[in-house]
Amino acid sequence: MNILVCISKVPDTTTKISFTDNNTKFNTAGVQYIVNPSDEWYALVRGLELKEALGGSVTIITVGLAEDDAIIRKALAIGADEAVRVNADPADSYFVAAQIAAYAKTKNFDLILTGKETIDHNNAEVGGMIAEMVGMEFVSPVNKLDVNGNVARMESEVGGATFVLEAELPLVISAAKGMADQRIPNMRGIMAARTKPINVVEPQGVQPLVKVAAFEMPPAKAGVKMIDPENMDELVQLLHNEAKVI
Amino acid sequence: MSVLVYVEAVGGKIKKAGFEGVSYGKQAANQMGTGVTAVLFGAADAAEVASLGNYGATKVLHASGDAFNTFESNAFADAMSAAAEKEGSTLLIFPFDNSGRALAPRLSARMGAGLVSGATAYPEISGNTLKVKKNVFSGKAIAQVEIATDKKIISFTPNSTGIQEVGGSAAVEAFSPAVKSSKIKLVEVQKQEGEIPLPEAELVVSAGRGMKGPEHWGVIEEMAKVLGAATACSRPVADIGWRPHHEHVGQTGITVRPNLYIAIGISGAIQHLAGVNQSKTIVVINKDPEAPFFKAADYGVIGDAFDVAPRLLEAFKKFKANQN
User: Domain B198-323 adopts which CATH fold?
Assistant: First the structure.
């Protein structure tokens, strides 16, 4: 069971977002980075659980520059066996997917796992693009994943129903809430991660398809209107007459 | 040439996001001086199919065979690329829901088409360049994304730009493209009976740790029932098992964009706000006047959930009774 887990570096969830260069670039000053939560909590941890149960190995891959080694070490400390960093700035989802697909084609992975979406650009694009590029099927979102022999059994929660699916490996899967629980790295894992090699590969020449022209901040809220807790009829009337939502 | 819009019918009814998608496509098509072709997946009667014309579709390709009655991303992606070829389409529109998330990236990679996922406004099209806004950093900022490839795909966030009736009519054609068979087998579908699916809900009643235990959720569920709302919860509540995971709203759970989000006993951690800050109207009920959620709220009530929630429930009941 050889599993590739795609991870992305994102600003910590509590980061105050601002921009520089005339609102064209994300202001990285003072920003703490983490492994994208759904990549780490769901895709990586479930990958590790499957490996622990069935044998094999878990390789993590990210597209980024040398500063990304810190989040790669974190993923290694949680338990990944090997790490690959494609040495390039992740220009857009298509560029990232093309790099990962090119690497994946040189290996025989049974499963390629991505998190449901990153918390920076909220695109949810890379998994589907990889599937297309490597010619595998793609299942999204997957909230539960088990593997029996070479058959994956998945649960996908969509539109108020749970779809139970089965498919032969290999597959590309978008991992969502429910698949696994966050795992805190222990001291042994952290020590072991220091000496695990990071395999740095040079990027394929691929042109991105989109670019961010500018960022802006959302319009500020008008301010909260406080209602007396004794007077819930007033709140209901405001929701009906003013907000017009009921 | 026409703008191609992905539309789904479930149980014979076209989904609301389908009508919104056609309206969205119509706005783009007007800028491009072309028409809108809707590709409809799933069975629906003639009147229902024809109704797409009212929102701006000039043509409907209706894919209604067995292969298209249940969502299957490979078959549906094949059908959309066949339709794009048949219509000579350079712009494809999807809703940014679970279907769009599965299909649009595949087609982007297949067609070399620049993709913007989660657009929240209409595009601005000038020559071969298209710019469109989307939320980034979980709603903490907005990005204007530019596509300059010849083929382009937009998936729009449902309930962002709305449905516009234009009163036109559409020519309907049966559509049965060849699609690859899938190795993914549907074993069973477990319906969550009687519940309104959270991602599509227009009204949401959500509660957090302030409820003190799962046995106190009766008032939340009843309020949701009275309003016809979906129920949701904060992450701690899902993590300790008081509520199911699929109710968890926030950065790592589900992002919602309802017309009304009522938060009861939720302090409003930044990760929770990221999942709800696109809601049109937010009501916050919390006993802590310093709760950060009040800063994101439109209406606030300072009070204990155990006092205020039952009173609000009674007020909603009275309101509903007077309406009938």
Answer: Rossmann fold (3.40.50)
